[in-house]
Amino acid sequence: MSRSHFSRSPRGNQDPTFTRTHSHSHSSSNPINTLGLPSPPPNGRRSSMGVEVRGMRRLEQRRNMEESHYLACNARAQNYNPPVDLRLLDYVSSYDNNLMCAICRCPFVDPVILNECDHCFCRACIRQCWNTNTTYTPLGPRGDCPTCRTPAKLGPRSATSKILVNLVDELIVQCPRKDDGCKAEVRRCEVQDHVNIYCGYTLIECTGKDCTDPVRRKDAAQSCLHYGASCLLCHKELQQWKLEAHWRSECPDRRVHCEMCKSPVFHRELEMHNKETCPAISTPCPGCSSRNKRGHAEAHAKSCTFAKLAPVLLRQQERLDEQEAAQKEMSRKLEVLEGGFTNMQGILFPSQEVENADRRSGDSNHIPYLRRSLVSPENADADAPTNDFAGFDWNFSAADVRHDGASSAETFQNGMASPPTRAAPAVPGPRPDDLPEPFSSDFDLASPPTFPPSGPYASPLHHLLSMHESLRDEMTRITSALSELDGRHSMQILNENLRTREEISYLAAQTAGLQRQMHWFTSAQLQRQQGRSPTPGASGSALGGAMMDAGAGAGVEAAVGAVSTAATALRGAARMVNVGGSASGVGMRRGTSEEGRTKL
Amino acid sequence: MASMSSKRLQKELTKIQGTLPPGITLVSAPDLREWVMDISIIDNPIYPPNETYRMRFSFSPSYPIEAPEVVFVVLAAPERKIPIHPHIYSNGIICLDLLDSQGWSPVHNVESVCISIQSMLAGNTKAERPPGDAEFVRSNRQRPRDINFLYHDPKV
Ligand SMILES: [Zn+2]
Ligand SMILES: [Zn+2]
Ligand SMILES: [Zn+2]
Ligand SMILES: [Zn+2]
Ligand SMILES: [Zn+2]
Ligand SMILES: [Zn+2]
Ligand SMILES: [Zn+2]
Known about the structure:
The structure holds 2 protein chains of 2 kinds.
Chain A: H1 2-14, H2 16-27, H3 31-36, H4 44-47, H5 49-80, E1 111-113, E2 120-122, H6 123-133, E3 142-144, E4 151-153, H7 162-169, E5 172-174, E6 185-187, H8 191-198, E7 203-205, E8 214-216, E9 228-230, E10 237-239, H9 243-250, E11 255-257, E12 264-266, H10 270-277, E13 282-284, E14 291-293, H11 294-303, H12 305-363, H13 370-374, H14 377-386, H15 391-415, H16 419-423, H17 440-446, H18 460-532, H19 539-584, H20 592-597
Antiparallel strand pairs in A: 1-2, 3-4, 5-6, 7-8, 9-10, 11-12, 13-14
Helix pairs in contact in A: 11-12, 12-18, 15-18, 18-19
Chain B: H1 2-18, E1 24-28, E2 34-39, E3 53-58, E4 69-73, H2 110-122, H3 133-139
Antiparallel strand pairs in B: 1-2, 2-3, 3-4
The structure holds zinc ion (7 copies).
One zinc ion (ZN) binds at residues 175, 177, 182, 184, 194, 199, 201 of chain A.
Keywords (chain A): Metal-binding, Zinc, Zinc-finger
Domain TRAF-type (chain A): 245-291
Region (Disordered) (chain A): 1-55, 405-440
């Protein structure tokens, strides 16, 4: 606004006539103006009146034209060069994060500090933020602080420290027209001046005659560049003044030099080249740890033995990973199995302590497997892998026993439900004849002291018997628990029944009371009617009284009947409860039967 | 304003490409309109640690002033599911007050939104969908930002 005022007046001053007529036309209405400005010569005034009026009109028109032209120019200039938004600049100098606005993440531009919470934002940022979610208020922009949500408002001049403003204004920025080619780097507070006055890439109005198109400031010294031309390479039709920009950043057929490899590349291929084909971009050798430029990669691959081996190594690596995964899986399984075995041992051991003595004393000599336990441990170890000669009879006896054990296990299984199936895998256990050699160690691990001769059981049969014993124990425990539960259950039902019966007897007493009251009411009514009947005299009335009597009597009778029906129903309910109680107690042994028989 | 949004997103992108908190990764940011992020939740038994969830951020031209639209997306390969949470519908829409026009503040950014969602999931104790999930998923044709969620549970 102030700029337009400033530049207008010199223009007007160039034309003395203009100034004069201007002052003249307003002289009558505005005497102050006349005092300050030179007045027209008084002598020529009357003689050239008509001429002057016509001239005045012409000048008026010209003035209007000039003004509108000027305004249009100004508007165009504004369009070509909108005011620089400092938040969109690229900063050359690094800046402290504390100088950064939380909304636009740039160094503060015209910072304001909210009085309510001391948070600081760019003035434009905080206004934008509040405009969207609050409507206009006459007290100025207000809203919640974006950082801490304290309700705050923007005062007419919210205080900011001059130091802060200076700090951010001193930062060096790049010219906003750097994409067009301006290499200027200026202090941020000067960037608007740079664009408006100095920058060669700012668009200004063409100096050519009758031409209002924009042109860059550095080209403005040449004559008008607004004529058609075509690009030498791609033959695109353009105006001359745009050619340089086209040449610089658009023309697909222009060759540029790759910054990495210095080779000429077509503009249209530059992106692809940078990403993929540029030989200067280094790639890692698949074998060794060296990185090679793409151009040398092939040569390196020929010489590098590692590169040749790369596919093999890759496969090896894959297999290794697979194996590792498998091994992890196996070790997890093993862990689970070991845990299971220790659990089983824990289950089996306590019963074994009690039974071992009598079992062993009872029939130790007619169990063939026991013989094996007499063999020295190293001998047993020796025959496990090879089993050529000495292994035979052992195997034989072991097989025998296994047979016995298996069949007894089967019968056992038929008799009982689940518990033996859980322990069953342990029974067949070791098979010295068909266990392959590498598994022998596993076997030692897997069936700890339970089975080898050194274990607590002399034979599978003992093992089975002990298991049977423990199961029997379990059975008796369960039976006692069951009977206990049974007793508790019957007690519970009995208590329940007692309470119900009490309630019912209470209800029955209530009903009886009601019945009595009903009777009393009925008799009172009858008496009253009998007392009233002789007063009107005559037989007719007596008849009517009798009739009424009968009617009332019938009604009362019906009511009494209903009450007694209710009573019987109640009694029936009580009986039902009793029957239910006895029915539920059928399976119980004691107490319940006589309980069922007791009457209300 | 469009340029302010792109300027800010550009800055966030360069920062995100540098460092990100554990469990949050930038998958792609093809332009400054739509970003794809992956998050994983480390110490919550509801979410297996090897499972990763994919979020799509869509930015409007008035981005820092206006909240981005954030949804979880389903993908076949690599497998990405919608995490189960009482505030996440099975079509991926997140009911988080940070993301609606009232709760949003321009000082938030992609990273802070990711962290918020991650901590929302990490603190979750109920493996369930919001009430009326099936009905909502069947009937909803609105964009997430146009939905008026009722924040029945103010503590999340
Ligand atoms: Zn700002
Ligand atoms: Zn604040
Ligand atoms: Zn410049
Ligand atoms: Zn021109
Ligand atoms: Zn060209
Ligand atoms: Zn290159
Ligand atoms: Zn190599």
